[in-house]
Amino acid sequence: MHEPARRTVLIADDHPLFRAALRRALEEAVGAAEVIEAADVESLRAAAARAPDTDLVLLDLMMPGSRSFAPLAWLRSQHAGMAVIVVSANESAAVARAALEFGAAGFVPKSAPLGDLVTAIRTVLGFGQWFPAAALEDAAAHSAAPAAIAARLASLTPQQYRVLELLALGRLNKQIAAELGITEQTTKAHVSATLAKLGARNRTQATLVFKSLEIQDVAPLSLER
Questions:
Q1: Is the pLDDT at 223 greater than 60, yes or no?
Q2: Partner of 132 at 20 to 30 A CA spacing, among 8, 186, 190, 194?
Q3: Domain residue limits at 97
């Protein structure tokens, strides 16, 4: 008999003590695993690139480099094979529901007992979902726009996604070209393709789509601007 494959798990949280707690929950849930740690968004991206076969990401949304759903949307867009459990200090049912709509497989408040986290890890690695009941109540009554936005973001290539991030920062084509090491003509082509995939008529609309990922905006989103 073959032994089960060793899991690879990426823990993305800027607090060392909480990363240790997540390691403990992971060990209880699955035993030995290959664990990669990231303390900010930049190191999260680098780790995901180095380990594209990662099975699970335990993700804090409020790390240095982002205070939004952007890291979750990026993971679902660029590394769709990685399951994501959001582990958040924000316990709002609206935030949990938005995490679900943006593609997370689970959501665990940081105040939850260790047993909940263990159960969530086992459930998600078993191809299930784990969310607080309040996040799932009356789901049909809530806007499907976050899921639609996530789907549009998922259609972007890595370069187009980076272009969108720079557009949201107010960068001009010349600045984007310099930062990405490409020509302005290529930049213009990426911008046009990004706008088309997002269904945005201009750079301002594209920026609004990206900024709708901000954690403070948990009301129903709209793609119509």
A1: no
A2: 8
A3: 7-139
pTM for the complete prediction?
0.75
> Which ranges in the chain belong to alpha helices (H)?
16-30, 41-50, 70-78, 93-101, 114-125, 133-136, 145-154, 158-168, 173-180, 184-198, 203-211
- Residue 66 vs residues 41, 55, 69, 151, 222: alpha-carbon distances, Å: 7, 23, 8, 20, 22
* CA 121 to each of CA 13, 145, 224: distance values in angstroms, whole numbers, following the listed order: 16, 27, 36
In a domain, 2, yes or no: no
Which among 107, 139, 171 is the end of a domain? Answer: 139
Cα–Cα distance, 132 to 120 (Å, whole number): 10
Q: Determine contact, residues 111/37, Cβ cutoff 8 Å.
A: no
Q: Are residues 103 and 160 in the same domain?
A: no
CA distance 153 to 44: 18
Task: Assess contact for 188 and 108: CB atoms under 8 A.
Answer: no
Residue 126, SS3 per DSSP: coil
What is the C-alpha to C-alpha distance for residues 175 and 187, in angstroms, rounded to an integer?
10
Contacts of residue 165, defined as CB under 8 A and 6 or more positions apart, other chains included, come to 70, 210
Encoded tokens for 215: 């954690």
**Domain shared by 130 and 178, yes or no:** no
Residue 219 domain-assigned? no
Q: Which of 123, 139, 155 is the last residue of a domain?
A: 139
CATH number at residue 194: 1.10.10.10
The CATH number linked to 105 is 3.40.50.2300
Q: Using one digit for the tens of pLDDT, what is the confidence trace for 149-167? A: 877 887 888 889 889 989 9
